[in-house]
Amino acid sequence: MLKPGYKTTELAVTVLASIGFLAAALAGDLSPHWAAIATSISAGAYALSRGLAKLYPPKDAPPPVTPPAPPAA
To answer: Could you give phi then psi for residue 61, rounded to 5 degrees?
Structure first.
């Protein structure tokens, strides 16, 4: 079954990387320009990984549940 995005390792890595880029920029070890680029790339990679996970769900995942049709009037 597909986990919600906030429960994935990808999100944790993305958040920690963003914090690391921010810390490096604040410490003067990394230009704020490059920190913003690195954070954007990290966020884009996260979005891509979630999209691929939803596009190709695990084979053992149950079929999606469709809501029942409303009763006819």
So the answer is: -70, 140
